[in-house]
Amino acid sequence: MIRFGMAQWQHPAWVDWIYPRSEAPSSRLGYYARFFNSVEVGSTFYTEVAADQIIKWAALVSSDFRFSFKVPRGISHQLNEIPFPQVLQHWQRFQDLLLPIQDQLGPTMLQFPASVDVSYLDKISQLCNEWRLPSSLSVEVRSLSYFDKFEGEASLLRVLANGQYDKVVMDSRPVFSTDAYCESLVEAQRKKPRVPCHAVATGFSPVVRFVGHPDLERNHFWLDQWADKLLMWLEEGRSPTVFVHSSDNIAAPTLAAWLDDKLDAKSDRYAKRLLLPSQHDQIGLF
């Protein structure tokens, strides 16, 4: 099956669409989970999240919902700043934090900055080998040395495939397909990595992070490509997760629904999954 999710479960522009205005922000995860069966949790990347908070989140959703937590940047972004044994200790503590909700974990995302090039591959491999939870681990790299279609990329793919670790495929092509003519594109081009989109699966649960363009109609070209790739992965017995972003994330649910429609149109064996409420008036402003 394919799981769809957003980079967050609440957005001011989703009020009166994904969830009613009357609901408190603390209840919005439950409403979000009526439509999507996964979500990226970026808060663990930026700050410490208490164990009881994670358990409270898990209690708001059904047992078939999956959380994809980002690994703290103190692990992924400080490989050259603190002793590696200390990094491994942080790594174990993070896994202990997730252990109580292990049955509701989707792919956990270990995201490395552009400064972590192929010279760090041994450390990446060690971190992967120290993954002890039963859910999948997905690795996202941003150094261009891993996209050379030669030994750098091949070495990474071998490490991941040999351990059945998954690869995060970042597709930021849409937001870099035009000049940054609006504020949301300026922000997206500043924050999102501009890396080649090499859609290679190394494990059973590949992760796609698609970042859509604010001119929504432009996205059909790339969504059609992803529909074909996702159907191929399903035929291979894989279970991909697709996290859909847009330049400001307002229209991300719409783009996810469009991708779901394309999958449904291209395959008689695919059952449509996303049944969003009628789009509210703001969508027409994009």
Automatic annotation (TrEMBL):
InterPro entries: DUF72, UPF0759_sf
Domain of life: Bacteria
Protein name, entry field: DUF72 domain-containing protein
Lineage: Bacteria, Pseudomonadati, Pseudomonadota, Gammaproteobacteria, Oceanospirillales
Organism: Marinomonas piezotolerans
Pfam family, one: DUF72
Residues annotated as transmembrane: none
